[in-house]
Amino acid sequence: xxxxxxxxxxxxxxxxxxxxxxxxxxxxxxxxxxxxxxxxxxxxxxxxxxxxxxxxxxxxxxxxxxxxxxxxxxxxxxxxxxxxxxxxxxxxxxxxxxxxxxxxxxxxxxxxxxxxxxxxxxxxxxxxxxxxxxxxxxxxxxxxxxxxxxxxxxxxxxxxxxxxxxxxxxxxxxxxxxxxxxxxxxxxxxxxxxxxxxxxxxxxxxxxxxxxxxxxxxxxxxxxxxxxxxxxxxxxxxxxx
Length: 241
Known about the structure:
241 residues, alpha+beta, Alpha-Beta Plaits, six-stranded antiparallel sheet, five-stranded antiparallel sheet, 16 strands, 16% helix, globular
């Protein structure tokens, strides 16, 4: 499978498409908590109780915004803030029923806009900003576990852990029902189109409804800070909570 300048060639034919799509809704509001994974799931579930169904294949991406420079617990929203749901094609009605709904996300109110539905785009580089894998609370263990999960998907590509400038793995945390969940970020590159679609379709790790385990193409024109909605915690060399 040929690639040129890091992009897939237009003439490449993709013979398989995943059964899931991305449904994106604009988010209007002032601010939310930086760590809003569980709060967002709870708010959406109050509008669509079906989201509690464990058999429902759904991923809920965190809302993008800009972290407050003084109060690190706050995320400021903008006209670029979006909610993205990854749903099976037959379940897209869930997203449409959320159109123009007002949500209480933690202590803050937001309003959703129109739904935009898109197929998953194949890309040679994918990134997941939050991944949690049971028992993987240090960078080395996480990287090994992530590689094993990719191997099970028959994906053999380059993987790179999100790290600080000094090389320490960036450990992030989210709160779920009062419990601290340890997460890491991962970039997977040198993917062929089928591998790229499979990885976006399947993801790795758990807590998909809390924004974890889902991959998306890297948008080089977007400030990465606007998507960093997890709480940056200890380094991976520290003891797990």
